[in-house]
Amino acid sequence: MRGLSEKGLKEYALKKASSMYYFANHPIEVKGCITLLVTLRDGKYTTTEYVQFFMVDHPMAYNAIFGRPIMRTAKMVIATFCMNIKFPIRT
Fold first, then answer.
1. Which CA distances in Å does 45 have to 29, 50, 84?
2. Best label site of 32, 41, 81, 86, fewest CB within 10 Å?
3. Would 60 be classed as within a structural domain?
4. Which residues pair with 69 in a beta bridge?
């Protein structure tokens, strides 16, 4: 899988995961899941959290989609109208 090799990871680093379903309840085969350390940054402000990613071999418009778990963990607030994401930082 291209995404793994671009990051220097091997496919054996993936843990088993069950299938996923997207719009209209169509299944997507999940190759596996991996937990990575993710740093969210806005200028000088950063927060770093562990995030679980599900790897799929499916054409998408995005490299990654953050769901509710990372949003809760990082305490994100989405301002859709302004196209911004705000998150608290450790001081």
1. 36, 17, 14
2. 81
3. yes
4. none
Which residues form the domain of 67?
2-86
Taking residue 73's Cβ as centre, other Cβ atoms within 10 Å add up to: 16
Structure tokens at 69: 């778990």
d(CA 15, CA 1): 14
Tokens 């930082």 -> residue: 89
**What is residue 69's predicted lDDT score, i.e. its pLDDT?**
77
Total number of domains constituting the chain: 1
* Predicted confidence pLDDT, tens digits, the chain (91 residues): 555 555 566 655 677 777 676 767 777 778 888 888 888 887 777 888 888 888 777 777 766 667 777 777 777 777 777 777 777 766 6
Distance CA 15, CA 54 (A): 9
